[in-house]
Amino acid sequence: xILLWHFSRExxxxxxxxxxxxxVGAAWLEGWCETKxxxxxxxxxxxxxxxxxxxxxxxxxxxxVLVCLLWIIxxxxxxxxxxGQLAYALTLNVVYTVNVKDVGYLPPSVKSEGGTNAxxxxxxxxxxxxxxxxxxxxxxxx
Length: 142
Fold this sequence. Notes:
76% of the residues lie in helices and 3% in strands. With 142 residues, it is mainly alpha-helical. A hairpin with a 5-residue loop joins strand 1 (110-111) and strand 2 (117-118). Helix 2 (11-32) packs parallel to helix 5. 23% of the residues are buried.
């Protein structure tokens, strides 16, 4: 994106550059908080926290886009949507950080009473992490 902007310095490319940088930052932030979502919210079924984070994030995103389009950067409409996505990702991180204190790491394998290794819960958690990571990647590619 930076090379594209460097070789064609038009207002429209600056608009897309700002938007692209904001979207990349937002994708990184959302990926960074996935551990809190999976280990701290979904595993413990604290869906109220996920609902609050998603709802507040959507409201903040909409408000940020509106404020940017009307007052802050009206000449860069595409960048306003990038700023909105970045505000959404920041909101998710704040809500999850405040509400999920004890995420820890993935649980260790546990020995069952029969002496066999009962790590199916850990495998299920790894599968869930993989599926949600793939979903997030596809969402941001689209």
